[in-house]
Design goal:
The chain is mainly alpha-helical and 373 residues long. It is 72% helix and 0% strand.
């Protein structure tokens, strides 16, 4: 019975491949971050549909809000130096087009189209004009703005290094300047580029430390946990009671976000050390594909459980929407690539080859991550 269960998990989640990682802490971090992102979108869906989550659930969402997206940008910046060394400028930019810009456009079209078709059952009120927002106002497209922002940030970083010979110090100074300008240029894709560039560059700056395996015991230590936890609690309490910080005092908000990132990374290094909660690594491995699909899936689940099944309990709805929304995203992705629809997720087939039957996956290494990088 147990072996059949494991076989089922392997078939649905490709858990054997997804659970392998050269850097487990990265997949742990991305797994936790994407769960927090999905939590926010489930909760927002509840509020927009007239359900009333408790103040505790709402405050938890605000705590998570402060650091989950900065953490994604930091983690993505960690790998750009090695990627440049391996691929070079041209091939790396091509890779960003294939793995970030392309799925952003495809899934923005899919999501808008479904929201128009099923407008009577969704919270989003879409029209044909929303297709123009793919380029002009990505923030209006629910969760998908992030892919466009990460593409723009990564390409700008690469081009500045190539053509202007910007070193990391120059990039950090520029990131600080951009962060300030985000208060003035607060529209379209420009705001996201300016606001998050600093976090991406911080990821580049910290990469030599975060990728140094000799330091992992320190990062995972209880001493670090004891130091960072009070700072995390105090900073998040302050933010929850002063939410306007993200607009009025962005550098203080950035500091709060960085404390949250440090807290999360300490937990992830500890999980790597203990090799516990392995499902988080699997979720992190698939984070990109969970990201593009989960909003559509949880929207359907919310309508089904409330209107068809008649569930009224917010905690139960939250658990069902969150767990099934993430699980179904992974299952649908695996079924889609088995059926040959890998091209709706990426133009770089090598990224998904490890998850295909063994006779088709001889190009990519089995432990290459599919997650947001």
């Amino acid at each position: 019975m147990k072996s059949h269960f494991k076989q089922g998990l392997q078939y649905l989640f490709n858990s054997k491949v997804a659970g392998q990682s050269r850097l487990p802490w990265v997949d742990y971090a991305k797994g936790l971050a994407i769960i927090l992102v999905a939590y926010r979108h489930v909760l927002i869906g509840f509020e927009r549909s007239g359900l009333k989550p408790s103040i505790l659930l709402i405050n938890a969402n605000e705590v998570f809000y402060s650091f989950r997206m900065p953490l994604f940008f930091i983690l993505s910046g960690v790998f750009v130096t090695n990627s440049l060394r391996k691929r070079g400028v041209g091939r790396l930019i091509k890779n960003k087009v294939q793995t970030l810009l392309y799925p952003y456009v495809i899934w923005a079209i899919i999501q808008i189209s479904l929201q128009i078709i099923f407008s009577n059952y969704t919270n989003a009120k879409r029209s044909l004009i929303d297709y123009t927002y793919i380029i002009s106002q990505p923030d209006a497209l629910d969760q998908l703005w992030y892919l466009f922002a990460l593409f723009n940030v990564a390409v700008l970083y690469i081009l500045l290094g190539k053509f202007f010979r910007f070193k990391i110090l120059h990039q950090l100074i520029l990131g600080l300047l951009f962060h300030s300008l985000s208060l003035i240029i607060d529209f379209g894709p420009w705001r996201d580029l300016l606001y998050y560039y600093l976090f991406y560059v911080l990821g580049v700056f910290l990469s030599s430390y975060l990728l140094d395996k000799n330091r992992y015991k320190i990062y995972a230590s209880w001493k670090v946990f004891i130091i960072i936890t009070p700072l995390f609690i105090i900073s998040q309490w302050y933010f929850v009671n002063n939410e306007s910080l993200q607009y009025s005092h962005i550098y203080l908000f950035a500091l709060i976000a960085l404390i949250g990132c440090c807290f999360m990374l300490n937990i992830c290094f500890k999980l790597q050390q203990l090799n516990k909660l392995k499902f988080l690594k699997i979720v992190g491995y698939y984070s990109l594909y969970v990201y593009v699909m989960h909003v559509m899936i949880v929207s359907f689940l919310r309508s089904f459980f409330v209107q068809v099944v008649g569930i009224k309990s917010i905690p139960l709805l939250l658990f069902l929407n969150l767990s099934l929304g993430i699980s179904l995203s992974i299952i649908i992705f695996n079924y889609a690539i088995r059926l040959g629809f890998w091209f709706i997720f990426t133009l770089d087939k090598n990224r998904i080859l490890p998850l295909l039957p063994s006779d088709q996956n001889k190009i990519a290494k089995p432990n290459e991550s599919l997650s947001l990088q």
